[in-house]
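Protein folds are increasingly written down as discrete tokens. With that in mind, we are printing a sequence and the tokens encoding its fold.
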Amino acid sequence: MKFTDRGIAALKAKEKRYEEWEDGRTGLGIRVSPKGRKSFVFLYRFDGTVRRITFGTYPALGIADAHVAYAAAKKKLDQGANPGAGLLQKRREEQFAPTVQELCDEYLEKYARPNKRSADYDQRALE
């Protein structure tokens, strides 16, 4: 199918998640969830493994923006690089980022207790 606003709006949720692929663009598709959420995806093969990148949800990410993201990912793939490597690294960094609790504990330990008389007040306020 050719991606148009009308065509994408006509895609209805089904019992299971499904994908529709755009004609003329190898690997660019839209995934429709059972709740009706629509996401642009790129299915590609890298190092003999099938991989998938989700660019964003429709309509927050428009069709033109999805085509730009697809072109950039396709260019990286043609150059021999994994287009999803940056996204995977970003997700891993977010996963291991310090929590608010850890940051509060670090503040109390390294700054408030050594430098402030009101460190107990800071601790109560943070809790």
The mean pLDDT is 86. Residues 63-78 form the longest helix (16 residues). The chain has five helices and four strands.
